[in-house]
Every structure is written in C-alpha cells, then in structure tokens.
Specification:
Helix content is 14%, strand content 30%. It contains 3 helices and 11 strands, in the order E-E-E-H-E-H-E-E-E-E-H-E-E-E. Strands 1, 2, 3, 4, 7, 8, 9, 10 and 11 form a 9-stranded mixed β-sheet that branches. A two-stranded antiparallel sheet has the order 5-6.
C-alpha cells in the first residue's frame, strides 16, 4: 500500500530532501520536517511559497499528482498587491498568455482574508497600496505559474499558500507538521 504524507511546507524551505546546490548550504530542506525513508515530493512548491506538499513512495501516484496530463486540481490562496477587478479575475478564468504559452483556464475568485498562520518573515506591505486575497485553482503546474499569472494581470503576488491538491487539504496541519493518510 502506498504511503501518502501531507506536509504543510513552511516558507523558505526547499521542496527536496537535500540541497545539492552548495556543500554546507544553510538553506532548509524537507529533511528538517520529514524523517520518513523512501517518500518523495509529488510535484514542487517554490522555496518562497508555503502550504501543501504531498509526499509518497508510489511512483505512479507521484506521476498522477504532478503530471499536467492528469489535470489534478491544485488550489492556492494568493495574497496580491492591488484590488482585483472583475476584468482581472475574468482574465485568469480564461487563461493568460505567458512566455511559455497559454495557461489553461483557472477558477479564480476574490475571497476574504483567510485565517492562516503568521508568515516568518512577514509579508512586506506598502501603506499606499491595498492588498487582497484570491483563491486560484489550476490544473497544471508550470514553474512559478500562479505568481506569473497574477503578475500578468497586474496583481503582483505577496504571499502564496497551496491549500489543496485534489481533495487533500491543509486543514488542521500547522506549518512544518505533517499527517499520513
């Protein structure tokens, strides 16, 4: 039976177990949080993003979760700079043209500020610029896709939290903690 671990990856942690970039690197990796042999991330979550990272020891399951051909939905809570307009949300819903091609249509909606843990370090705000939260659901996972999509429509990303992968969510999992399902 496949092992599946849901980890709430903290901000500033690499989505890998070792940092092969530099010997003695101070960058934090998954090995700080998960000491389960044989499990690997199904997909990636950028170092400056937080939230749900699914780990498994089943290669087929890993492929079903991370490969865009399976269209596994991933839900993000995105704090953006600015006040999203209906037109900007409509652009995200339609799909946007990025340098690596058109994105698939996304589900996008304005949401109230979610009840999340404080981020360390905190997000830097500008008093003269409003911010808002968007829930964005995508079915692909290009490099820094959510950040590039929101920036493309004029809403730079301040904080990015992956809340769900398919039906699995972060509900009840504090940052740096994990649950096996």
């Amino acid at each position: 039976m496949a092992r599946v671990i849901l980890l709430n990856k903290p901000f500033n942690v690499l989505s890998q177990f070792t940092d092969k970039g530099t010997e003695g690197s101070p960058r934090e990796t998954l090995s700080t949080y998960v000491q389960v042999p044989g499990v690997y991330p199904a997909g990636r979550l950028d170092r400056d993003s937080e939230g749900l990272l699914v780990l498994t020891d089943d290669g087929k399951l890993q492929a079903r979760i991370s490969s865009p051909k399976f269209k596994q939905p991933k839900t993000y809570l995105v704090q953006v700079e600015g006040s999203p307009t209906d037109a900007q949300l409509a652009q995200l819903r339609k799909g946007v043209e990025l340098k690596d091609g058109m994105t698939r249509p996304a589900e996008a909606r304005l949401i109230p500020e979610p009840e999340l843990w404080p981020r360390t370090p905190p997000v830097r705000f500008r008093k003269s610029v409003p911010d808002a939260w968007i829930e964005l659901k995508i079915t692909e996972g290009r490099n820094r896709q959510v950040r590039r999509m929101t920036a493309h429509v004029g809403l730079p990303c301040l904080r990015l939290v992956r809340w769900a992968v398919g039906t699995w969510t972060l509900d009840g999992i504090p940052p740096g903690e994990w649950r096996e399902i």
